[in-house]
Write a structure and sequence with these properties.
heterotrimer; A alpha/beta (261); B alpha/beta (344); C alpha+beta (384); A: 261 residues; alpha/beta; two-stranded antiparallel sheet; 6 helices; 13 strands; globular; B: 344 residues; five-stranded parallel β-sheet; 8 helices; 18 strands; elongated; Rossmann-like_a/b/a_fold (chain A)
């Protein structure tokens, strides 16, 4: 079995988001990590590899620095890493990103494509389903359990108050939730091997069956009108409730304006 | 793509088990505002099996027209037939704007549909407005564009997005943000039945089973609202007041270390450095005063509401809203007020 | 000369840091409070290859360098000194001498499972009457047919009773020189737990690193196969000293980790803690104390890493190891003591980790050669 896993390098928000003195996000000061949902997808692939034997190829699109997440994936047990990087691919929205990744994946053999549900920087949850559409494959998003049965996958797909047990013929696309599993750690020896291994780098010319008009900033249907970083909240507002009712009214007002209730 | 051909504001009217989801009504509310700004009308797209009976409810909440795609293949939500249905409606009726709820279903359906009809999609929007936008390469701003505002980066940044050269302008919208209109009983909508034909292919997945989940053990890290108590709650019996509040608002009770040390609550409910780190949408800190240890576990919460007798309590340093007062008197009255509001 | 870590070392550090934060830190207080040997953590480390980091792959290890191993002990010790020393004693004092002095058969039989973490290792030199004066040891080994017969006892043995494999130093010969002075010669043995005649005495109750198991070992006519002699007969003391040179780098990194952990916690604490209407970080005393501590920690790290590099490239690294351990241990003691002081009353309370770290730091000045022994080693090389 051959499994392709799409992963993304994202800024780490765990240690708190860092801000510049002017209140904007300080991306340079934040460490980068493998996107958590993607890591769960990779772990799912590695478990299938442990169970049934599989070749796991990780693909990422990004700046040359994104090579780091491929090494990390390989230190966890992925067999091959492919970095898709090219100036003309920069500034892509989800449409252009999914077009690019689909163009890269067309060069590969696969039975299963696994992506994370969404990335913690964009939170869009669009790229996985769009890759499925570009490659004309069945899609199962929000997987919380994955099994292989013959030429099909059996997946528990999570909804709000229920889950569906779905069966799809391979090849297909699955998007993984970080709740799917507890990703394994790298091993020290795996890290050393990953740094000795070759990473394949692909640029625009290596993408298969892709039109330039669908790539990069120029090929992105959505355009940013304005972006702003929320100013970090400091100490909030305080009031003194002379009577309990006063306090209740105050809280109710906040809960209603914030759409909590 | 001839942009002028695309007209009207469409919403995807999500139904599950042949019940209209609340998000569909919220989208209708917003769609009416947008349609008014554009001088156009509102169309709901209803997809399912035996769902025609739901048309009137959509009309009452503001749909001028309902396109119904009714087919046995659409009984349960599945990505492929629903994508086929919605994409076919788009190709046939050419909406200017299409809104989809950012629910588990909408976030599966939206991207696939947008890719099939080759347009942009902005996810998880919290603000939608009609306004002007100067597209890349344009000399002048264009009027009547959908401006879609969404948080990113876990809510740390916000961006406003437009989709100037592709139609429809598609957005998924976060549930609970847009306001429903007051329903107008007896309203009728123009009903169009449309069936593009459904033929099973490899992209169809088979549903083997549907399992409704039962609530398991309390997981404070998964809770959207936490009602957290500290030593100031005073006794294990008083925690019943917090239980009531949590139940009324749909939240879960958690606590500080002092409460666990006193044996009032089990360790798995403890928030803080030696307990769990939580990040709910709303965090009530009730009778919690000692700061550093506790704050380390909850400072990332979206909204922190603290109630404490002591105006100098360090918890107020991190609270968005601080109420100085007697929590034991405020909490039960707050529970009543919330119950009254929710019952409306 | 380049002081930046390579990318793979940086990634390895991130791995150790993540593991320490997620798996080790949550247990640290309980491990200390209840003197619990963290077997569950050892099992996890086994799966990840942490028990054989510098051992070549062909012997079941990870095939990394001493620096990578040192960073593992450092990161573990930042959150739990107990866990740090378990790995250090196992790797430096048991796996390492078998790797250096073992026969191919010994390596296959013992090093492979040790490096894979299937077996846990320990090292036994110290005796009740022979600490710093290791030559004063009394435990004897006598060859009887195809077996060595061990008699005597060892004390303060880290990983005692939990370890499966023990490197034991014993007297195999006593000669009387021309002036009538007795001269002992030592040999090194590999002893398996469960060998008849090998039992455990009391478990020590300690000030710090309370989760690490520290036991007395008792040998009463304990018969081990002849082939379990490690290295040449009569060269045991040299083997023990060389082994300790490596072990000292491990303990130096444990001390470094404890110091770094205490400093990190204190930097966070002083930014939050308010007195006289402002944070104590705004007090000049706090600022200057932290500046001094951070500088010393940095200096300690450079010495420890230099010693690790020396182990990778030099045959003899006694002086580098002694300097690293002497300095890092004393820095750990100073840093943790001052961090407790900056925490004020809370620093004296068990709930705050710096309290434990101060207790844990003390042992690094004592075991695997006291600071005084390190000074002897260093001055000996200066004045020879």
């Amino acid at each position: 079995m051959k499994i392709v896993v799409c992963i993304k390098q994202v800024p780490d928000t765990k240690g708190g988001v860092k801000f510049k003195p002017d209140g904007t996000l300080d991306r340079a000061a934040m460490l980068t990590i493998m996107n958590p949902d993607d890591k769960a997808g990779l772990e799912a692939a590695l478990r299938l590899k442990d169970q049934f034997g599989a070749e796991v190829t990780v693909v990422t699109m990004g700046l040359p620095k994104a090579e780091e997440v491929l090494r990390e994936a390989m230190a966890m047990g992925a067999d091959k890493g492919i970095l898709v990087t090219d100036r003309v691919l920069g500034g892509a929205d989800t449409w252009a990103t999914s077009t690019t990744l689909a163009g890269a994946i067309r060069n590969l053999e696969y039975d299963l494509i696994i992506t994370g549900r969404q990335a913690i920087d964009g939170d869009t949850a669009q790229v996985g389903p769009q890759i499925a559409e570009h490659l004309d494959l069945p899609l199962i998003s929000y997987a919380q359990d994955i099994k292989i049965e013959g030429d099909s996958v059996i997946v528990q797909r999570q909804y709000d108050d229920r889950y569906h047990v779905l069966k799809a013929k391979m090849p297909c696309v699955i998007t993984a939730l970080s709740e799917l599993n507890e990703p394994r750690y790298m091993t020290p020896g795996g890290i050393f091997d990953a740094y000795d291994a070759e990473i394949t780098t692909w640029g625009r010319p290596d993408l298969k069956d892709v039109d330039d008009s669908n790539l990069g900033l120029a090929g992105s249907p959505t355009q940013i009108a304005k972006a702003s970083d929320k100013v970090r909240k400091g100490k909030g507002v305080m009031m003194t409730a002379e009577t309990p009712e006063e306090g209740v009214d105050y809280i109710m007002d906040k809960l209603l304006t914030k759409h909590v209730i | 793509m001839n942009l002028q051909e695309y007209k009207g504001v469409f919403i995807y009217a999500q139904q599950v088990d042949n019940k209209i989801d609340s998000i569909a009504l919220e989208l209708l509310g917003k769609a009416n505002d947008l349609a008014a700004d554009l001088g156009t009308d509102v169309t709901a797209v209803l997809i399912g099996s035996d769902v025609k009976g739901l048309v009137d409810e959509l009309a009452e909440y503001g749909a001028d027209r309902v396109i119904v795609v009714d087919d046995p293949a659409l009984k349960e939500y599945r990505t492929e037939p629903y994508t086929h249905a919605l994409a076919s409606v788009i190709n046939e009726y050419k909406p200017d704007i299409l809104l989809v709820g950012a629910t588990a279903i909408g976030r599966d359906l939206g991207p696939r549909v947008s890719a099939r009809v080759a347009t942009g999609l902005t996810a998880d929007c919290t603000v939608l407005e009609i306004g002007e936008f100067k597209a890349r390469g344009d000399a002048e701003p264009r009027q009547g564009q959908l401006l879609m505002t969404r948080p990113a980066f876990g809510g740390n940044t916000i961006a406003t997005i437009a989709c100037p050269n592709h139609r429809p302008q598609m957005a998924t919208v976060r549930p609970g943000v847009m306001q429903k209109k007051d329903p107008v009983p007896g309203s009728k909508a123009e009903v169009i039945e449309f069936n593009p034909g459904f033929e099973e292919n490899d992209k169809y997945v088979e549903i083997l089973d549907i399992v409704k989940s039962v609530s398991e053990t309390v997981d404070i890290q998964a809770a959207k609202i936490l009602v957290s108590g500290g030593r100031g709650v005073g006794s294990p019996e008083n925690f019943a007041l917090l239980d009531d509040l949590a139940e009324a608002i749909g939240g879960t009770v958690s606590c500080s270390r002092a409460v666990v040390d006193n044996g009032w609550k089990p360790k798995d409910l403890q928030v803080g450095q030696t307990g769990k780190t939580v990040r709910p949408q709303v965090y009530f800190a009730i009778g919690i005063s000692r700061a550093i240890q506790h704050v380390a576990g909850m400072e990332e919460s979206d909204i922190i509401i603290a109630i404490n007798k002591d105006p100098d309590a360090p918890i107020f340093d991190v609270a968005d809203y601080g109420i100085v007062g007697d929590a034991l008197k405020i909490v039960p009255k707050l529970t009543e007020a919330i119950k009254a509001q929710v019952g409306k | 000369m380049d002081f930046t870590l390579s990318k793979k070392h940086e990634m390895a550090r991130q791995l150790f840091k993540d593991f320490a934060e997620n798996e080790v830190k949550p247990l640290a207080q309980e491990v200390d409070e209840t003197e619990h040997f963290p077997e569950e953590t050892v099992a996890k480390m086994q799966k990840l290859g942490f028990m054989g980091i510098p051992v070549p792959k062909e012997y079941g290890g990870q095939g990394c360098d001493p620096l990578t191993y040192i960073m593992c002990v450092e990161e573990l010790s930042k959150v739990c000194g107990t866990t740090g020393v378990i790995v250090s004693a196992h790797t430096s004092l048991c796996a390492d001498p078998i790797m250096t002095y073992g026969t191919e058969e010994q390596k296959q039989k013992y090093l492979v499972p040790l490096a894979k973490g299937e077996l846990l290792g320990a090292f036994a030199l110290t005796e009740p009457g022979a600490g710093t004066d290791a030559q004063g040891a009394q435990t004897k080994a006598v060859l009887d047919g195809d077996e060595w017969v061990l008699n005597g006892s060892k004390c303060f043995i880290t990983n005692g009773s939990y370890a499966d494999i023990y490197i034991v130093i014993a007297i195999t010969d006593v000669k009387v020189d021309a002036r009538g002075r007795k001269k002992k010669s030592f040999s090194t043995f590999i002893v398996e737990k469960g060998t008849p005649g090998f039992t455990f005495g009391t478990k020590e109750k300690k000030m710090g690193i309370r989760g690490s198991a520290t036991y007395e070992l008792i040998f009463q006519d304990c018969r081990i196969p002849k082939e379990n002699l490690l290295g040449p007969q009569g060269k045991g003391f040299g083997i023990a000293m060389h082994t300790l040179d490596g072990g000292r780098i491990g303990i130096a990194s444990q001390a470094l980790g404890i110091a770094e952990g205490a400093l990190d916690l204190t930097i966070n604490y002083v930014k939050e803690r308010k007195q006289f209407g402002r944070t104590i970080a705004q007090q000049q005393n706090t600022q200057f104390v932290l500046a001094d501590l951070a500088t010393k920690v940095q200096a300690a790290q450079l010495l420890v890493y230099k010693a690790a590099m020396a182990k990778a490239t030099q045959k003899v690294y006694s002086v580098e190891a002694a300097m690293a351990k002497l300095f890092a241990a004393e820095v750990a003691m100073e840093v943790t003591t001052k961090c407790v002081q900056l925490h004020g009353g809370y620093g004296y309370i068990r709930e705050y980790d710096v309290e434990r770290m101060m207790r844990d730091a003390k042992i690094t000045e004592i075991y695997e050669g006291t600071s005084e022994v390190q000074r002897m080693v260093i001055s000996g090389s200066l004045l020879k």
